[in-house]
Automatic annotation (TrEMBL):
Name the record gives this protein: Restriction endonuclease type IV Mrr domain-containing protein
Provenance organism: Xaviernesmea rhizosphaerae
Length: 524
């Protein structure tokens, strides 16, 4: 295609002749470079040719996994070498610029004296060239000139274009250099440019009513939605502000605030008690006075809302979202719960930067509402289980549900006591009715095995026991006089039965608890 800016009367070829020469030259150089060049029958799509690379038959790779060869769209322009400015119909260049495929303008300059090509330029529809197209479209929209087929855009071959050789190999290499090794990555990068080039942010105006300052703060903190009316949304791009006309004038909005900072939040039952520690994010509502200060601290398991200079504590969620936590995570949760069922708990919020000072607050009264017996049981069980898991030594702490944690306090306490103070452990014992074989004396050795159910594993421990017989009313009872922890490990539940069988040596009594398989099933 020729360049419409060239004057036919003073040139050796008219515009049609010059355009035909350029198109034939372009097709010939594609053939020289072994590129497939398909001409558009009607120039209504913004491009003159689809240029495709051939399949690599020498290094095909795995045939069903290889991608398609490079394919791009090209608008071809021919001009005299005394000119550098390209006149483009805006409707055509819009299609070319917004095509998801790699798209280019190939400019061929011809000498008036020799009618030979003197230089070639390749304009890639990315970066500055793409920005000029998008800016011109926005200008036309702002002026309410929506029939863009009547508008024109000018580019320069040497300004927006890259000078290349006039031969086919130079054109082919320029395409490879522009597109890179991955067409998919190229198309994704171009799509991003189409969305973000020239963007300068936006503005939303709307009207809503609230009953109090607290409600207003809750709206800006993203806690509650609000009904709005007279909604107007505008965006600024390339310095031009436009109002969006596809936005409903009324509706319900819930703000997702931008965090002000990260923080470390600690909660203690008293000043020097062991704290519960959580990572969180801080959000602030707009305020002009200290008394109006409103902040929201969000952690994985709960939220705290602070209001005014006399902070009040508000828990949005007092139980973790997930049913499966590690023993350490359960202990941290119950340390928090323990603090909040006592009076005068201390909350300290340490922001991640110096922009906001440390926030300290003393909570008056029980804000948790959980029964103290429940909290104490959970704190005890999670603390003991944390110690047991540390003694085993695992890279990743296993998970356990709250119900399994609280229902196995006795088992957890047994293995914990074996590790910390065996003298406090309740002796093992069993009764036997009737006469015993002659070889069974008053002292026997036994092996006891037990377990704690976890989410997908079990903690197993094995104890060597010396048992002493006590006789009463014709019944024999054996009670342990010594307990020594032999093994402590974590196993998949399906290995438990084999593990117990391997303990037997033919002479030692094995006392083991049957694995309650149905209880081991956990929610996913």
């Amino acid at each position: 295609m020729n360049n419409e800016d060239d004057d036919d009367e003073q040139n050796p070829l008219n515009s049609d002749e010059l355009g035909n020469k350029g198109e034939h030259t372009f097709q010939a150089l594609c053939s020289d470079a072994k590129l497939i060049c398909n001409k558009a029958d009607r120039d209504r799509s913004g491009w003159d040719f689809i240029v495709e690379f051939n399949l690599d038959h020498k290094n095909p790779g795995i045939l069903d996994a290889r991608g398609n060869p490079i394919s791009c769209v090209v608008q071809q322009k021919t001009m005299w070498d005394s000119n550098d400015r390209i006149k483009l119909r805006l409707s055509s260049i819009e299609r070319l610029a917004k095509d998801r495929r790699p798209s280019f303008i190939y400019v061929l300059k011809i000498s008036k004296e020799t009618l030979e090509a003197t230089s070639a330029h390749l304009i890639e529809m990315r970066g500055d060239a793409l920005a000029k197209v998008l800016k011109k479209l926005r200008e036309e929209h702002a002026a309410k000139r929506f029939q863009v087929n009547r508008a024109t855009l000018y580019l320069t071959a040497s300004g927006e274009g890259r000078t290349i050789g006039t031969d086919g190999e130079s054109f082919k290499q320029a395409l490879l250099d522009a597109i890179g090794p991955s067409v998919t990555a190229y198309e994704a990068a171009k799509h991003k440019e189409l969305c973000v080039l020239g963007q300068e942010g936006g503005k939303i105006s709307l009207t809503f009513d609230v009953n109090s300052k607290n409600d207003l703060a809750d709206v800006f903190l993203g806690i509650i939605p609000v009904k709005v009316r007279d909604v107007k949304v505008s965006s600024t791009r390339f310095g031009i502000t436009l109002e969006k006309d596809d936005i409903p004038e009324e509706g319900e909005v819930k703000i997702q605030p931008e965090r002000a900072d990260t923080c470390v939040l600690t909660i203690r039952r008293d000043r020097f008690a062991e704290p519960a520690v959580f990572d969180g994010e801080i959000f602030f509502a707009p305020s002009q006075k200290t008394d109006d200060l409103a902040a929201r601290i969000v952690t994985d398991g709960f939220e705290i809302v602070i209001r005014g200079s006399n902070f009040s504590f508000q828990s949005q969620t007092m139980k973790p979202d997930t049913p499966l936590l590690s023993p350490t995570e359960w202990r941290n949760y119950f340390l928090m719960a323990d603090a909040l069922v006592h009076k005068d708990a201390t909350i300290e919020i340490r922001p991640g930067t110096d922009a906001i000072g440390t926030i300290r607050h003393r909570v008056s009264g029980n804000v948790n509402g959980a029964p103290r017996d429940f909290v104490l049981q959970g704190l005890t069980a999670s603390g003991m289980l944390t110690t047991v898991v540390k003694h085993i030594g695992v890279a990743d702490e296993p998970k356990i549900s709250l119900s399994d944690l609280l229902s196995q306090v006795e088992e957890i306490g047994s293995v914990y006591t074996l590790l910390t103070d065996e003298e406090l452990l309740t002796p093992l014992g069993f009764e036997v009715e009737g006469d015993l074989p002659a070889h069974v004396g008053d002292q026997i050795q036994a092996v006891h095995a037990n377990y704690v159910l976890l989410a997908s594993q079990i903690i197993v421990w094995v104890v060597d026991a010396d048992m002493k017989r006590e006789t009463s009313d014709g019944r024999s009872r054996f009670v342990s006089t010594r307990l020594d922890l032999r093994e402590l490990t974590i196993l998949p539940p399906e290995r438990y039965e084999t593990y117990i069988k391997d303990l037997a040596d033919g002479s030692t009594m094995i006392m083991s608890r049957l694995l309650e398989v149905e209880r081991h099933a956990q929610p996913t």
